Amino acid sequence: MSQAPQKPLGAQMSHMLKDRGVDVIFGIPGVHNIEMYRGIEEAGITHILARHEQGAGFMADGYARATGRPGVCYVITGPGLLNTLTPLGQAWSDSSSVLAISSCLDEVAARKGQLHQMRDQQGAGATVCDWSETALSAQAAFALVDRALGEFTSERKRPKHIQVPIALLGSRVGPAPDPVMQPTRPQARPEDVAAVAEWLIGAERPMFIFGGGASDGWQDARRLVQATGAASFCSFAGRGIVPDDAPLSYGPALSRPGSVEEIAKADLVIVVGSELAEVDLWRDRLGHDAPLVRVDIDAAALCETVRPDLGIVGDAGAFLADLLALVEPHVTPGKWNADEIAQARVRFHAEASAARPGIAEICAALIPEMPDDLVVYSDMTQFSYVAKEVWPMAAPGRWHHPFGFGTLGWALPSAIGGKVGLGDVPTLCIAGDYGFQYTVQELGTAVELGLSLPILLWDNGKLKEIEDSMVRSQIAPNAVVARNPDFCALARAYGAQAVAPGTLDELVAAIKDGFSADGPTLIHVTPAILG
Question: How far apart are CA 293 and CA 273, in angstroms?
Fold first, then answer.
């Protein structure tokens, strides 16, 4: 038998990723990682050139969220990795499967003053990743890639960082070993599911709270709340698991202060796939007086924030399917009042609208005109804060946002990565005037790729959310107004299309046109559009 041909390790790693199902890599080449680029085209992988390593990391995050597959980025030693730490931190907080692969210096203890040298590159990656490891051999590099891909499928999705010394990347080695069978996710114990089923059958006012971790089981979740007569809330990440207009759905209103008294009405609360983190609740307590069940793939999540009476470690989708099978033949309708829940939804929407006036009215004009399969990437901006509460979603996993880490500038590059993965699926980017300028350079990438991506740019001329916070804290507003460019001219300079609609009808038309345009379209919107 002929021996498998040897190639530089960097090329073999690209071939390995392709064999494991990776079709796209986001990144920027540099003198320290060029060996990683030797095999990309040969392996049949598409490389997306970002304008900044932060953009590459955000693109990988957006791709992972859109497709459910790992988002991979290639970056250089030192500043390249550091520029990617913010996206990796966002991926950590929002449970996204991002794999960053970087080069590193061969020797740092006895040699100082090298290009891109830093004191502890591996340690820097570890601050925001599930793990950050250095591969000191080809076998280790291959093993770490397989470890990362296996954990993406079997554990809570968290970013990983692998770094490979420059000389090792260029050394000739044999191909990666054949793929191993991927591990499966942990399953809830049958006796725990049976206990929850017994409680649920006996409850008169059961309530489910669904987080983003329950998205894979959304069909069973809908059948469960219907069969049991259970009320439901969802986190922002769990929107669409149960329709917002379902008779007993409170919608994504967990952070509304009034949700406390609604949750207190339940005689059983079952939380599936949600951390119940600060950014979910914005308060110290959930509000329940009833027994609390929490189901999560991450055991650590069950010991933090709101402690349950019964904590179950297991895959949320499988748990929902198993629970449905046990309770569906036996339940009787609950005693929730649909009219009271509908009235609570109206109150919650009114509160969201009043907190940031005018935005809900714009959303009301857009919602009925948007495609049923619309996917949205939104940034940290007041427009998004309102839209996340009032814009109904037909299914989960269609509105992506930097929920936990809260990074400005996330939306544009993440939408680019998402659009690369989604293809013809209509995708909308929503950004604010300030955050947009963090990553505006990635417009060049969207133009190069010819992506049909409308970008709704909400320009209120200031850091309005911060100004409002200062006023509430009785601080004289300071450093919240900055000179903005001519955004439409800036977009056209990159080769994008740009429009500034003067009416809501023109805004709707601009977004619709953007879904089929030959490239990205910047849609500049100010509060003046409301007249």
Answer: 11
Euclidean distance between CA atoms 286 and 522, whole angstroms: 40
Q: 12 CB contacts (<8 Å, ≥6 apart)? A: 39, 138, 142, 173, 174, 175, 176
Contact status, residue 518 vs residue 452, Cβ threshold 8 Å: yes
> CA-CA distance, 458 to 456, in Å (whole number)?
6
**pLDDT score at 2:** 55
Among 400, 408, 398, which Cα is nearest to 372's?
398
Q: Within a 13 Å sphere around the CA of 139, how many CA atoms are in the beta-carbon half?
A: 0
At residue 1, the pLDDT reads 45
* C-alpha distances in Å from residue 403, one per residue of 95, 171, 335: 10, 41, 34
Q: Distance between CA atoms of 168 and 68, rounded to whole angstroms?
A: 31
Handedness of CA 323, 94, 423, 162 (dihedral sign): negative
Low-confidence ranges of the chain (pLDDT < 50): 1
C-beta separation of 102 from 163 below 8 A: yes
pLDDT at 455: 98
- Name all domains of the chain by residue range, CATH numbers in brackets: 7-173 (3.40.50.970), 190-343 (3.40.50.1220), 356-530 (3.40.50.970)
Q: Is the pTM of this model over 0.85?
A: yes
What is the distance of C-alpha 393 from the center of its chain? 16
* Residue in the block written with tokens 């989960």: 396
pLDDT, one tens digit per residue, over 340-350 is 999 999 999 99
Q: Would you list the DSSP string of 304-327?
A: SSS--SEEEES-HHHHHHHHHHHH
pLDDT in tens, 157-167: 999 999 999 99
- DSSP for 132-189 reads EEE--SHHHHHHHHHHHHHHHHHS----EEEEEEHHHHHSEEPPPPPPPPPP------
